[in-house]
Write a structure and sequence with these properties.
alpha+beta, PH-domain like, two-stranded antiparallel sheet, 9 strands, disordered N terminus, PH_domain
Length: about 240
Amino acid sequence: MFRRDSRALDGLFEEDGGAAGERHDPNVQMAGNLYKKATSGRPSWKRRLVVIKDGFLMYYPAARETASDGAVCADAAGTGGVVLTRFDFHPKGLLPLDGTTVERVDDGPTRHLRNSFAISHASFGGRALVLCAESPEARDKWMHQIEACRFITFENAVAGSQQIDKLKKQQGQARVRAANLEADASSRGDELRVALDELEALKAAAGKALLHCRALRQELESRQGAGLTQGKAPA
């Protein structure tokens, strides 16, 4: 997997560049800002947005609590308490978590900030990815999540993603059917309203015709009455 690629492995411990490009993805297990230790050359710490998703750990440039468009990125403490809604699609580093080990280490960017944990694997060549949280509680939550994800294989992640895609497709089809039914009902409703309007118009026309017939009948009866009166012989 990725850890067997020396270039990808070096990217975990060094500070390489990452192509930008925002993408929505709410399907993350945990996300937040942590301090990452670079072990190549002089040890240094840089703040990074760390994301755990489908058995992978990825990190990006540090996220502010609110993006430029107002979308929440992650909680600053890195506890995963805020849902991640936006992050760069291309990470600065990516690590499969299956088969890794995680343990606490007494290290950190400052003398008073030493809530660190190290992620290691036999293929790392003795190196470890060291991350530091803002608090012991946040560190323990990260370690617990990594432990839970160590058994998520790439194949399971792919199968899960395919199942999600299938469900999303079915959901989309259901929405289309619902929209069609709604449109059909709306169309039928329009037809019914037109028919009712025509019926009301016919009723009104029939009423007018009835009144006209009554007027003609009255006029006829009046003329007939006048004719009978004029036709009588004098006594």
